[in-house]
Every structure is written in C-alpha cells, then in structure tokens.
Amino acid sequence: GQLSSDVVLVQLSCAVVLVQLSRAVVMVQLSSMIKQIIIQLICVAVLSGIQVTNALTCYHCTDNPGEGSGRPYVADCGRFDYQGASTEQGDDTTCYIAITNDGFVQRGRSESPIFYQGGCQYGTSFTGCFCKGGLCNTHSFCAHCGYPRPTPTTTEQTTSTTDPTTLTPVSTEPPTPSNPTLRCYTCVDCPEVEDSTHVIEGDFLTCVSTIFLNSAEVIRSGSHEDQPDECIHHAETLSCYCSSDLCNDYTLEF
C-alpha cells in the first residue's frame, strides 16, 4: 500500500513538471514570435522612412495664364519669394526655376539627372536654374545664370596700321551686318522703373512690360518676339512691346 502511494506521488510530481515545462516552451515561442513581429514592424517603418526621404517636393506653378502646359497657373508664382501651396512630389533629383524670355516664371521638378545644384540650362525661349532639396526652387530668379538670358560676350575691335606704300584691295562684297543688341529693364513686381532697376542686354528684338490685370503686378524683360510697338491684351494680362534701348520704362495702369 505504501509503495502504491509513493508511485502516485512520483507520477503527480512528473505531471506538474511537464506542465511547467510546456508553459515555459509556449512562453519562449510567444517571445520569439513577438520579437519577429517587432522586427518586421521596425523594418516596415524604416522602409517607409526611406521612401519618404527619397520623395522630393518642389513648388509647381507658372504665372503665365496662357501657357497651356498643364502646369497650374498661380498669379503669385512669379514672386521672388513664392512659398505657395502649389507643389508636386516625385522621385526626382532636382527642383527648377525657369524664366521665359518674355518674363514669365515656371517652377517644378526635373526628372533628368544631368542637372545639379546651381546648374543652368539655356533654351531657345527660357533660362533655367536647378537646386537640390525640398521646396528649394524659390528666392531666386536665376541671376547666376544671366536671367533672363546670359549677356552676349563681345570681342574688342583691334585697329591695324597699313604701310602707305602697300595697296589694299577693295572688297566688292557687302559688309556683314553684326547682330545688334538691345538693352531692356528686367524686374518682377516693379510698377515703376528706378535707378536701381536691373538692365539686361542681349540679342532681343523687343523690350516688353506685362501687367497682370487681377493683381496689377508688372514684369519687365527682353523678348525675342518680333512685335510692333503696341500693347496686346490677353485674358488676364496686358503686354506692351517696344524696340529701342530701355524703352520699357513706362508706367502701366488699367
């Protein structure tokens, strides 16, 4: 009888030990699963952070109401310190500002990797400058790129003397006309021209002053458009052209 009681006690003790071991194994498994879940959550958070970091946000707008490129028209986009709500985001390398020859401003993202911080691009109708960093395409009018176009370089004319005894043949070919340059006032949000107003010189055909009818903001620049001396009315702007040096100094009113 005593032996049977001892056997029962041993069996109960073994059962208790097995139950405790089972619980310990379950806890270890749960701890391992929890660790895996935590690691996965951390990886997801890190990857999400990397994706957000790679996305570049730039100001995206134009102050040209007739551009028709799909870029949002914002009257204040031409302000030097534009910080409006019109932006776009993407996996691009740079933001840009483009100044057209007739004085309009474009802002956006550049998908091309060839442009870099401080880089310039010269198109037939615009000058562009590029920057790296979120919302960096403001507080600039591409001055370091020669806004709105780089000033043409001129070569100094040298004079030479000819020995009086030497006969110089007379050319029958008509002289080749040189490309004339035109000086124009260039500024943004300048209702009047002052002594400090910037002057740009280039192979422009006309000077132009544009007033936005809804804000009375005036932009002055040089233009490669061959226009008569007249004013042209668009939906929201009035552009006046002239063809002599520094002629776009008049005050525009409406």
Automatic annotation (TrEMBL):
<feature type="region of interest" description="Disordered">
    <location>
        <begin position="152"/>
        <end position="177"/>
    </location>
</feature>
<feature type="compositionally biased region" description="Low complexity">
    <location>
        <begin position="152"/>
        <end position="171"/>
    </location>
</feature>
<protein>
    <recommendedName>
        <fullName>Sodefrin-like factor</fullName>
    </recommendedName>
</protein>
